[in-house]
Amino acid sequence: MLDAKLRPLIDPPLNRVGHALARAGITANMLTFTGLAIGLGGAVAIAFGQVWLGLALILANRLLDGLDGAVARASTPTDLGGYFDVVADFACYVSVPLGFGVMASENTLPALVLVSSFVLTGVSFLAFAVIAAQRGEATEAHGKKSFFYSTGLAEGTETIAVFIAMCAFPAWFGVLAYAYAGLCVLTVIQRSALAASQFR
Questions:
Q1: Those residues with Cβ within 8 angstroms of residue 145's Cβ, 6 or more apart along the chain or in another chain
Q2: 117 within 8 A of 176, measured Cβ to Cβ
Q3: Cross-strand bridge partners of residue 199
Q4: Greater confidence, 107 or 21?
Q5: Cβ neighbours of residue 118 under 8 Å, at least 6 residues apart?
Q6: How distant, in Å, are the alpha carbons of 22, 92, 145, 156 from that of 71?
Q7: CA 80 to CA 85: how far, in whole Å?
Q8: How many angstroms separate the CA atoms of 160 and 140, rounded?
């Protein structure tokens, strides 16, 4: 919901750093896989009760996720790079609630519900992108991407905000997880309604 609105603010500084990294020989895939390792490390830290360390690693992961796209735009974007980027994103998103689920037994059920909602959201997102590509549709509302990015209520910005809240108030993980899972389900319904209208 907020991703497209934030792009004009975050893209210019990211693009400047991305150009510098590209000139230094850093590739987008290097940043993607480094970010993936850091993000998964954040989930492991949370599982061991190191919530603030986990949050720091998650935020570092998000920074690298922004920079890999900036480096790709400064050099030569590839379909394979776009594939790796999306897989890494979803792997990190899913790992965070799993980390909370491992950290405390009372978090297990809400973690499973949140992961399930992430799967539904991801399926709707990717299915929409596939059909949009087949129809030759395109959008740059979320910046220049490897494939069609459909807008939804629950996007990257909202997910990171919820992760920050979970790390700041771990005792409220269950409430936050159920609430955000509900928003993810609403996103699937919203995207499905958009598909029904757009793909007739």
A1: 69, 82
A2: no
A3: none
A4: 107
A5: 90, 93, 94, 97, 184
A6: 6, 20, 13, 19
A7: 9
A8: 22
Task: Assess contact for 33 and 64: CB atoms under 8 A.
Answer: no
Tell me the pLDDT tens digit for each residue of 67-78: 998 898 888 888
Measured distance CA(72)–CA(66) in Å, rounded? 10
Structure tokens at 133: 């590509």
* Chain position carrying tokens 């799993």: 98
Residue of 143 and 22 predicted with greater confidence: 22
Quote the pLDDT of residue 125.
87
Reduce the DSSP state of residue 18 to 3 states and report it: helix
Return the DSSP state at 136.
T
Q: Residue 148: helix, strand or coil by DSSP? A: coil
Residues 43, 97: Cα–Cα separation, whole Å? 8
Residues linked to residue 143 through DSSP beta bridges, in sequence order: 141
Beta partners for residue 141, in sequence order: 143
**Residue 191 parent element (H or E):** helix 173-198
Dump strand ranges (E) for the chain: none
Give the residue ranges of DSSP H helices in 104-172.
Answer: 108-134, 156-168
d(CA 46, CA 35): 17
Answer whether 84's CB lies under 8 Å from 71's CB. no
Amino acid at 92: C
